[in-house]
Specification:
Blueprint lengths: L9 E7 L1 E2 L11 E2 L6 H18 L4 E9 L7 H14 L1 E12 L3 H4 L2 H7 L3 E7 L3 H6 L6 H14 L2 E8 L6 H14 L3 E6 L7 H7 L8 H17 L4 E3 L2 E3 L6 H7 L3 E5 L4 E6 L2 E7 L3 H11 L3 E6 L2 H12 L8 H8 L5 H9 L3 E3 L5 E3 L7 H9 L1
Parallel strand pairs: 1-4, 1-11, 2-3, 4-5, 5-6, 6-7, 7-8
Antiparallel strand pairs: 8-10, 9-10, 12-13, 13-14, 15-16
């Protein structure tokens, strides 16, 4: 792999915070509301926050838009269209912009796919999570495996680009079970899969069950074997990992997520959204109010829901670049780290990590984490950043 020529990208992330139910493993900013959501009111607030953000960060060309959640596929297509129109009114949008919408693979939401395509969405990411009904029930999902595969089939007829997620290292899952499930998934996936190890996050129902001994997940050795199966099967089938949990055919990587991992700029709109914006030559780390109704009132009163706006110093920017960039198979250019931090990475630490087989450095100087180093990524990053 050669060093990659990165054109300057700019993404816009839009967060729709509502779900039909809360999955027991999920620690994202998602909320269940039993009363109908006033989508028109939220669409106006999204447009207002977009306008306010664009006034602070004008003149950008939007190369990717990502509607995440929550469950954005609970939105009506006209709501999505209104949000995309607002982005187009306040920034220039690239002709080849990637517009992704996260969707639940239920029959109800799949019926809206054509409406999303008409609104301007050109890529969907489906939260399939598992291909057997017992696992789906245990994960708190509201769809069956058949329903999920039907939704994937509908997506295939409407969108040139689609992806879906699976969770592995589930309770009682063996390497052979995961191999079979993964091969089936790849046969349904056109170009991209996101494959996440189940992690037990604090303040989730799974955390309480796990602490009480009522939820048993694979031990470290089994989890590592499942990770190795993931890498091998995907590589054999032409979907190598380009990021620690994401696999794609070459050229089909999610361009929006690459914005994050390459340390480029992105705006964040909606409850609990985050942003990294260069304003007056300084990198701002921005976050909005998480609670949907509070965010809505803030935007209506003052034009945005911002609750944190911190200027990152050179060391914080460099550490973030390292943390995100080393997740990528392409790795990082240490010269960029030096330009951000004002100091070079320690050559002794690099040499030690090379000797341990955790990283490689190519002829152009790019530093990459190896296949053996990826399961130890946090330790590798901590060692380099020290």
């Amino acid at each position: 792999m050669t060093a990659i020529d990165h054109k300057e990208a700019f993404g816009v992330y839009v967060h729709w915070p509502f779900c039909l139910s809360k999955c027991p493993y999920c620690d994202f900013n998602s909320h269940v509301r039993h009363a109908p959501i006033d989508e028109e009111r939220y669409a106006r607030a999204f447009a207002r926050e977009i306008a306010t953000t664009a006034a602070r960060a004008p003149g950008r060309e939007v190369t990717s838009i990502f509607l995440g959640g929550g469950t954005p596929s609970l939105m009506q297509p006209q709501t999505v269209g209104a949000v995309l129109d607002a982005i187009g009114q306040h920034w220039h949008v690239a002709k080849d912009v990637e517009v992704t919408l996260e969707a639940n693979p239920t029959s109800v939401e799949a019926t809206r796919f054509r409406g999303y395509r008409t609104a301007g969405v050109n890529r969907v990411s489906l939260g399939v999570q598992a291909l057997d009904d017992v696992s789906l029930k245990a994960l708190g999902r509201l769809h069956t495996a058949r329903e999920a595969l039907d939704a994937v089939a509908i997506a295939r007829t409407i969108f040139d680009r689609y992806s879906f997620d699976l969770i592995y290292a589930r309770p009682d899952q063996t390497a052979q079970m995961w191999t079979d499930e993964l091969k089936r998934a790849i046969s349904e996936a056109a170009e991209h899969l996101s494959l996440y190890q189940l992690t037990i996050e604090p303040e989730t129902p799974f955390f309480g069950l796990h602490a009480a001994g009522k939820l048993k997940v694979p031990d470290e050795a089994v989890a590592r074997a499942l990770y190795d199966v993931t890498q091998e099967v995907c590589a054999q089938q032409g979907l190598p990992s380009y990021e620690i949990s994401n696999h794609a055919r070459p050229g089909a990587e999610c361009r929006h997520n690459l914005v994050y991992w390459r340390g480029q700029q992105y705006a964040g709109v909606g409850p609990g959204a985050h942003a990294r914006l260069d304003i007056d030559g300084r990198r701002h780390a921005i976050a909005t109010e998480k609670r949907p109704e509070t965010w809505l009132m803030r935007v209506e009163a003052q034009g945005n829901g911002v609750i944190a706006d911190d200027i990152l110093n050179s060391e914080e920017r460099a550490d973030e670049f390292l943390l995100m960039g080393l997740r990528l198979a392409e790795g990082i250019d240490p010269q960029r780290y030096k330009a951000l931090s004002g100091r070079a990475l320690d050559p002794r630490r690099i040499a030690l990590l090379k000797d341990e087989g955790a990283i490689t450095v190519d002829a152009s100087g790019w530093l990459r984490v190896t296949k053996d180093g990826f399961p130890l990524l946090d330790a590798v990053v901590a060692d380099l950043a020290a």
